[in-house]
Specification:
Elements (H helix, E strand, L loop, with lengths): L1 H8 L7 H51 L7 H12 L9 H13 L5 E5 L5 H7 L4 E6 L2 H10 L4 E4 L9 H10 L25 H5 L4 E4 L13 H12 L7 E7 L4 H11 L4 E4 L3 E7 L12 H10 L1
Parallel strand pairs: 1-2, 1-4, 2-3, 4-5
Antiparallel strand pairs: 5-7, 6-7
């Protein structure tokens, strides 16, 4: 009976193949999981390599510039700054061929160099860095953006300006200004007290007192009919250059978007063709000389310029 009972209590244990398959499946999923993240890591590494290189270079350059104190920027630093600025993904950035002439003039500028820029752009921090030992001031039409940018970059001097012009009226405004050339719109004056429609007279007092060595007109933005365009900034740049009281008697004025209709006409009328030393489709480089306060003619061939513009 005991044998029968023992026999009846004997249990048969079978190992189902599923158990082995389940272990293999787990290893397979683990392999897939590791492969997926390895692939994702490689893709991310390849995609971000250029961005990381640019970021690291920018940080290294900024640290180098900050550590230079009052010494002149080395040529390698300047060239690196120009390279990475011209390679930006921003569609509105300047090309290397546009940046280089401005950089060359800033390098040759007597120290400290006074640099006035109309417009906050992709190159704002670049201009501040290139004029390492000098004074760099920016004029921006959007007061909210000016305040935001200055809060973001406290080392940048930004002032907002109110433009009372419309691009759709630029021909009428220029005609009116030329009629007032012996009064409110004369080429040599203190714009702080001017009532000329194209003169910016709401900037801080010291902006009018500085003898600017280099002026870049790269703002305001916009070429739609209601936009202020660059009439006032071009006119103001011309008056500031001619009205210098001291320092170097010459002022370099750069006009960006040189091929625009407003830029072409205002450049011809207020910066003058005889002062144009270099030009491309997008950048004009003028050199203006200080003028006598009794001068009432922007260009030597002002009469010819007026006749040709009116006939066109």
């Amino acid at each position: 009976m005991k044998n029968n009972n023992n026999s009846s209590n004997t249990k048969l244990i079978l190992l189902h193949p599923y158990i082995q398959k389940q272990g293999s499946s787990n290893r397979l999923w683990l392999l897939v999981f590791i492969s997926f993240f390895t692939l994702a890591f490689l893709v991310t590494l390849i995609y971000t390599r250029e961005s990381t290189t640019t970021t690291n270079a920018t940080v290294a350059i900024s640290a180098t510039v900050s550590g230079l104190g009052n010494t002149q920027l080395p040529t390698t630093v300047i060239n690196t700054l120009l390279h990475y600025s011209s390679k930006s993904n921003d569609s509105l950035h300047m090309s290397y061929s546009e940046l280089k002439p401005i950089s060359d003039v800033l390098r040759k500028c007597s120290s400290p160099c006074n640099f006035l820029v109309f417009g906050l752009t992709h190159e704002t921090l670049l201009w501040k860095s290139l004029n390492h030992k000098g004074r760099t001031v920016f004029i921006e039409e959007n007061r909210y953006y000016a305040a935001y940018f200055e809060e973001l970059h406290p080392e940048i001097d930004v002032f907002d300006a109110q433009y009372a012009t419309k691009r759709s009226e630029f021909k009428e405004i220029i005609t009116s200004v030329k009629e007032q050339v012996r009064n409110e719109c004369r080429p040599v004056q203190n714009l702080l007290f001017s009532e000329c429609k194209l003169g910016l007279n709401d900037l801080p007092n010291h902006v009018y007192e500085v003898d600017w060595d280099v002026i870049l007109v790269d703002g305001p933005h916009g070429d739609w009919p209601e936009a202020p365009s660059r009439m006032s900034s071009i006119f103001t740049a011309g008056v500031l250059a001619r009205s210098k009281k001291g320092g170097n008697g010459k002022t370099h004025v750069f006009l960006h978007d040189f091929g625009g209709e407003v830029e072409k006409l205002c450049g011809k009328e207020f910066l003058c063709k005889e002062n144009l030393v270099e030009a491309s489709e997008t950048l004009g480089h003028y050199v203006l000389e200080r003028m006598d306060e009794n001068s009432f003619q922007y260009c030597k061939n002002q009469t010819l310029s007026t006749a040709s513009s009116s006939s066109s």
